[in-house]
Amino acid sequence: MTLPLTPSQTVGPYFAIGLSRHPEDELVPFGSEGSVVLSGAVLDGDDVPVPDAMVEIWQADASGSYVAGFGWGRSGTDADGRYSFVTVKPGQVEGQAPHLVMLVFMRGILKAALTRVYFPDEAANASDPVLTGLPEEQRARLVATADGDAVRFDIRMQGEKQTPFFTL
Questions:
Q1: Which of 128, 60, 63 is nearest to 97 (CA)?
Q2: pTM of model > 0.90
Q3: What residues contact 122, with CB distance under 8 A and at least 6 apart?
Q4: What one-character-per-residue DSSP string does 62-76 give?
Q5: pLDDT (tens digit, 9 = 90+) per residue, 65-109?
């Protein structure tokens, strides 16, 4: 007799249910003063796009404050594994360089994968306690790249170029 799979054995793809009610990927209106587009792709260990992942961001506002009603966003990935947010570059918080906290939910993992996204050409990156606590070869994997007027951050779940993840 074969037993049915339990929910913890069949994680995803069900994220579209929570994403279809209203857009949660625009923390500020596109084109508004100080807005920045953050986009990228979620890739598996073979660099294949993950079309049914969900990405969340948590952040401070432009002044470095956490305020009610701002700082959280969610984006599902499309058929090419791409996600996108419209937000603002957060200010520094408690001696940390401006960054976003990012959670990745996808099939095959029971807990979200936690990482950070730092901004390119940010002087404070050199003294950020999280970045400086990592081996040098991993630091660059947490810094987004400039992509025109936007920034790009690809998330690699496994492999040689794996994004550094942190314990929740």
A1: 128
A2: no
A3: 97, 98
A4: TTS---TT-SEEEEE
A5: 999 999 999 999 999 999 999 999 999 999 999 999 999 998 888
Instruction: Tokens for 88, please give them.
Output: 């603002």
Residue by residue, DSSP assigns 20-76 as SSS-BSBSS-TTSTTEEEEEEEEE-TTS-B-TT-EEEEE---TTS---TT-SEEEEE
Q: Let me know the angle formed at the C-alpha of 121 by 46 and 132, rounded to the nearest 5 degrees.
A: 70
Q: Residue 32, Cβ neighbours under 10 Å: how many?
A: 10
Contact, 40 vs 152, CB < 8 A? yes
Distance CA 157, CA 91 (A): 28
Query: Contact 141/164 with Cβ under 8 angstroms?
Result: yes
Give pLDDT tens digits for 112-137.
999 999 999 999 999 999 999 999 99
Q: Which two three-digit tokens encode residue 70? A: 């701002």
Selection from 30, 33, 91 nearest residue 66 by Cα? 91
